[in-house]
Amino acid sequence: MTFLPSEFHAAMNRAHAGAREWIDSIPGRRVAPSANIDEMLAVFRGPLQEQPTAPADVVDELARLAEPGLMAMPSGRFFGWVIGGTLPASLGADWLVSSWDQNAAMRYASPATAAIELVAGEWLVDVLGLPPGSEVGFTTGATMANWTGLAAARAYLLDRVGWDVNTQGMQGSPPISVLAGAEGHTSVDLALRYLGFGSPTRVPADEQGRILVDELRVALRASESPVILCLQAGNLHSGAFDPMAEAITLAHEYGAWVHVDGAFGLWAAASPSLAPQLAGVERADSWATDAHKTLNVPYDCGVAIVAHPGAARAALGTQTAYLMRAEGNAPDPMDLTPEMSRRARGVPVWAALKQLGRSGLASLVDGLVSNAQALATELATLPGVLVLNEVVFTQVCLSFGSDDRTREVTSKLIADGAVWMSGSRWRGRDILRISVSNWSTDAGDVAFSVAAVQRAMR
Ligand SMILES: *Cc1c(COP(=O)(O)O)cnc(C)c1O
């Protein structure tokens, strides 16, 4: 088999055409997919054929057949879960990353991607107002970014009590108390599970889901072992932020490691008008966030940030002779993330920040919040609609009266498909949940979405 640039050109041209068709369809298309999973399986399933297929034909078939089963997640009218769209520069950069096909594990192996990711990390630490010198790893998402921060915490706290978790493991280790707010995200629970901690001790939260500092004090007093405290910047339902300054100061009095899950909410720190809600967050020990949510880079990209130089590497680093290292003692990318081999997913982050600049990033975040507030204000004027949360960030939770009625409106809206919002249950009620996470949502999308909800109500 021969490396033929022309074969790449043909496949890439088809990909380009298919991608353009998709992007061109976004402003006008229904958000919901028109085919369900069973229909898509019927399209794709079948025995693998015996003979090869021309690369361009493979790409062409893929683009054509997949289209009905795609959700328009890049649309400004998509408000499901917490899912961002894609900035043009990031999409272009992501294509380059695939074409370059670099294994981003080591500085020695790929100086270009290592440098770009290092700079993207420095820019992130800067725009988020975190301590200079914090170390940054690019993970698949916030789940693994949470895992990374918590793995660093585990190694660090156990080391302080004379236990090397890397060699001695968790069986028979000194105990660690893990505290988390009552409305912490399930991905923190997953990360704790992967690390052998089991479930955290839940600290009660207020009606917006913010951890209660008095209750935290009680929990800290009761802990007889080193503590990891998991805080949250951006509640999945209300968007609320834990009281960072108070909670972190208090936890540090008890020698705790404070980890902040800021998957989408940490980006508030990049906006001068929103940052005060997060004041003090920079004093935590580690942070997890997602670039594929609020920053709007293509899937996937999470960001793990650790304030203590060397702590992530102590937990995640490795040393064997065949991995050739660059000169000097700086960590390689693979020392700061769970993976060894991975794509250079920090490059689209660099591109997003370069496209936006500081002011563009602040406007992006401010814009999401003002659209969320506009949706909440306009929807609240409809008869029987209740906005259940204080809209302090990008999330809006609605009730239409009874749970039955809310579920009915939600399923009508989803069946209509012109916009997409998801259902959930929060504080004992069924809700329709809106997350404004797409950079391109504008006033037209807001008006269109209010009309779609009105239709679903009728
Ligand atoms: C989305 C989210 C996560 C999980 O992030 P993934 O990127 O899906 O791994 C964790 N915490 C919060 C608050 C989230 O919104």
Highlighted features:
458 residues, alpha/beta, Aspartate Aminotransferase, domain 2, Aspartate Aminotransferase, domain 1, 3 domains, 7-stranded mixed β-sheet, 4-stranded antiparallel β-sheet, 14 helices, 42% helix, globular, binds pyridoxal-5'-phosphate
Task: Give an overview of the whole structure.
This is Glutamate/tyrosine decarboxylase-like PLP-dependent enzyme. It comes from Subtercola frigoramans. Pfam families: Pyridoxal_deC (PF00282). InterPro entries: Aromatic_deC, PyrdxlP-dep_de-COase, PyrdxlP-dep_Trfase, PyrdxlP-dep_Trfase_major, PyrdxlP-dep_Trfase_small. Keywords: Decarboxylase, Lyase, Pyridoxal phosphate. The chain is an alpha/beta fold. The protein folds into 3 domains: 5-72; 92-352, Type I PLP-dependent aspartate aminotransferase-like (Major domain) (Aspartate Aminotransferase, domain 2), CATH 3.40.640; 367-457, Aspartate Aminotransferase, domain 1. It has helices at 5-25, 37-44, 55-66, 88-100, 111-127, 142-160, 165-168, 186-194, 213-222, 244-253, 311-316, 347-380, 403-416, 443-457; strands at residues 135-139, 177-181, 201-203, 227-232, 257-261, 286-290, 302-306, 386-387, 395-399, 422-426, 429-435. The strands form 2 sheets. It has a 7-stranded mixed beta sheet, sandwiched between helices. A 4-stranded antiparallel beta sheet has the order 8-9-11-10. Helix 1 (5-25) packs parallel to helix 3 and helix 12 (347-380) crosses helix 14 (443-457). The longest helix is centred in the last third of the chain and has 34 residues, at 347-380. It is globular, with a radius of gyration of 23 Å. The protein starts with a helix and ends with a helix. The relative contact order is 0.15. The structure holds pyridoxal-5'-phosphate (PLP). Pyridoxal-5'-phosphate is lined by residues 82, 141-143, 185, 187, 234, 236, 261, 263-264, 290, 302. Residues 82, 141-143, 185, 187, 234, 236, 261, 263-264, 290, 302 line the site of pyridoxal-5'-phosphate.
